[in-house]
Amino acid sequence: MEVLQLKHLQKVFFPGTNNERHVLKNINLKINDGDFISVIGNNGAGKSTLLNTIAGNLHVDAGEIDLVDHDVTKKSIAYRARWMSRVFQDPKTGTAGDLTVLQNLVLAQSHTQTISLHWYQKKTDRKSFSQLLKALNMGLENFLDTQVKYLSGGQRQALSLLMATLSKPKLLLLDEHTAALDPKTSQEVMTITEKIVQEQHLTTMMITHKMSDALKYGNRLIMVQDGQIKLDISGKQKATLKKEDLLKAFK
Ligand SMILES: Nc1ncnc2c1ncn2[C@@H]1O[C@H](COP(=O)(O)OP(=O)(O)OP(=O)(O)O)[C@@H](O)[C@H]1O
């Protein structure tokens, strides 16, 4: 089953001016249930624009976006959010700094269910959230009542991931979500990412500039170049792909 289908997507910035820029040029893509796709490409290739059109931050000039068999081409971010979650590069974007870890989790949970006013204070809920946090291996279970602004970037990004996936989205968008982290923390967050994606069987699209991560993680790799999909590699071919093969494909 397809989770996402992109048909002939086109996006032009500053149309009809000297600065006219065709950023997405007839993008066609089918994303299957359970796909974990790394998206790579040069600066300015169109990766973020692609993610922004999928999420609804940008509307396309032509083409169609089908999400879980719904035509969402002209729908808002909020409409699409019932099936989709996104984690951004900046750890501050996905969490509310002035709220505690527990309050952030309750907010994320409340997107999917009705909660009573002091629901988050129940011991049982504290316990279940604490267990979820413990599984991330970042010591977050010790900071349930700490304001998120006092956490490290890695802890905050791990929390963002947990919050984005609490609702078990049909599609998870990761927008260079480890780019702002140091190498060790970045690897820890990637390990957590893989664990969550596998355990929940999440269909995932991950933009990354780290070729080693693009090669290591996921069953499929897409290279965007000059607004087009230059490579789309999956299965065995992806598993045996080498860094040199990718370097050759970069313009
Ligand atoms: N809102 C916008 N208005 C005008 N031009 C834009 C806008 N967003 C992106 N662009 C332009 O579109 C092109 C593609 O940008 P995009 O951010 O999608 O590339 P990218 O592949 O994500 O690059 P990077 O790896 O540097 O993040 C760039 O030339 C950029 O300047």
Brief account:
This protein is an alpha/beta fold and 251 residues long. Helices cover 33% and strands 25% of the residues. Adenosine-5'-triphosphate binds next to strand 2 and helix 1.
Describe this structure in words.
The protein has 251 residues and is an alpha/beta fold. It has a single domain, classed as Rossmann fold. Helices cover 33% and strands 25% of the residues. It is built from 9 helices and 10 strands. A 6-stranded mixed sheet has the order 6-7-8-3-9-10, sandwiched between helices. The chain has a 4-stranded antiparallel sheet with strand order 2-1-4-5, with helices on one face. Helix 6 (183-200) links the parallel strand 7 (171-175) and strand 8. Helix 3 runs parallel beside helix 5 and helix 5 packs parallel to helix 6 (183-200). The mean pLDDT is 92. Residues 13, 21, 23, 41, 43-49 line the site of adenosine-5'-triphosphate.
CATH homology superfamily name? P-loop containing nucleotide triphosphate hydrolases
Q: Which residues form runs of ≥5 with pLDDT under 50?
A: none
Shape: globular
Instruction: Spell the H/E element sequence.
Output: EEEHEEHEHHHEHEHEEHH
Radius of gyration: 19 Å
SS strand fraction: 25-35%
Helix content: 25-40%
- N-to-C terminal Cα separation, in Å? 33 Å
Keywords:
binds adenosine-5'-triphosphate; 251 residues; 6-stranded mixed β-sheet; Rossmann fold; alpha/beta; 4-stranded antiparallel β-sheet
Set out the fold topology.
Blueprint: E1 2-13, E2 21-32, E3 36-40, H1 47-55, E4 62-67, E5 70-71, H2 77-80, E6 84-87, H3 101-110, H4 123-134, H5 153-165, E7 171-175, H6 183-200, E8 203-207, H7 211-216, E9 220-225, E10 228-234, H8 235-239, H9 243-249
Parallel strand pairs: 3-8, 3-9, 6-7, 7-8
Antiparallel strand pairs: 1-2, 1-4, 4-5, 9-10
Helix pairs in contact: 3-5, 5-6
The structure holds adenosine-5'-triphosphate (ATP).
Protein name: ABC transporter ATP-binding protein
Keywords: ATP-binding, Cell membrane, Membrane, Nucleotide-binding, Transport
InterPro entries: AAA+_ATPase, ABC_transporter-like_ATP-bd, ABC_transporter-like_CS, ABC_transporter_ATP-bind, P-loop_NTPase
